From TrEMBL:
E.C. code: 6.3.4.15
Taxonomic source organism: Roseburia lenta
Enzyme class per UniProt: ligase
Gene3D superfamilies in alphabetical order: 2.30.30.100, Bira Bifunctional Protein, Domain 2 (3.30.930.10)
PANTHER family hit by this protein: BIOTIN PROTEIN LIGASE, BIOTIN--PROTEIN LIGASE
Sorted UniProt keywords: ATP-binding, Biotin, Ligase, Nucleotide-binding
Pfam family, one: BPL_C
Protein name: biotin--[biotin carboxyl-carrier protein] ligase
Keyword field contains NADP: no
Domain annotation BPL/LPL catalytic: ranges: 1-187
PROSITE patterns documented for this protein: BPL_LPL_CATALYTIC
């Protein structure tokens, strides 16, 4: 199993950027960089991921996989399963996944995942798995209020009079423990066959109508789950289509999920 080494920084531009700098300098697999604050955090599709000081998790892992390069995009789904497991096991909060890698509580996003890769001659030189989790936020901007939630907000909804709060350090370690187990299985199969059933069980938009935001034209269908490669299977009146996360986004017809 991958042996992880944890480093914590008070502030950094981006934990993903720091891992990339370390990777280029020759750092070996298993380094985890976490930070109390990110000044230039990013999410999927180039969106900014806010990491105010000491209220959320910003953490990234360096991998040097020997898995075929075409299969590595599945790691973002592996990471989503690890985060979902960690939150539910530590805090007893019902937690779901919105394809491909958003972790959802009460219909709102609690976690963002960004996986990046450097490749040469058809092989991965390194992969960075970056994870951001909202933990201590008590509110969000008007723009995000109906889309985002934190662990503490979910705990408050679960028990309005309780004093339980999330713990960034505890949750970070549990996420990477879960990821290490899943990553070992993924490296053996080079697909998602071992975790596909679990992923689909917690896929929040499974068997629901979704809108596929394809640059070539939006279309709708019923999400039926993922296949072993991590593609979303969407059933239309005509056929069952495979949707690749690298090309399109998927939304609920009547809202975010």
């Amino acid at each position: 199993m991958i042996q992880m080494r944890h480093e914590y920084l008070e502030s950094i531009d981006s934990t993903n950027n720091e891992i990339k700098r370390r990777a280029v300098a020759g750092e070996t697999e298993g380094l985890v960089i976490s930070a109390g604050k990110q000044t230039a955090g990013r999410g999927r599709s180039g969106h900014q991921w806010e990491t105010p000081a000491d209220i959320s998790i910003a953490t990234s892992l360096l991998l040097r996989p020997t898995v075929a390069i075409d299969h590595l995009s599945s790691l973002t789904l592996v990471a989503a399963v690890a985060v979902r497991r960690a939150i539910e096991e530590l805090y007893g909060i019902e937690t779901w996944i919105k394809w491909p890698n958003d972790v959802i509580i009460h219909g709102k996003k609690v976690c963002g995942i960004l996986t990046e890769m450097s490749a040469s001659e058809g092989k991965a030189e390194y992969v960075v798995v970056g994870i951001g989790v909202n933990v201590h936020q008590t509110s969000f901007s008007e723009e995000l209020a109906d889309k985002a939630i934190s662990v503490d907000m979910a705990l408050k909804e679960q028990d309005p009079f309780g004093a339980k709060r999330g713990d960034c350090k505890e949750l970070t370690y549990r996420i990477w423990q879960e990821f290490a187990l899943l990553y070992e299985a993924f490296c053996m199969t080079e697909d998602l066959s071992i975790i596909m059933e679990e992923y689909n069980r917690f896929l929040i938009n499974r068997n629901a109508k979704v809108r596929v935001l394809d640059p070539n034209g939006e279309w709708e269908g019923i999400a039926r789950g993922i296949d072993e490669s991590g593609k979303l299977l969407v059933e239309t009146k005509e056929d069952l289509r495979q949707v690749d996360s690298g090309e399109v986004s998927v939304r609920g017809v009547y809202g975010y999920v």
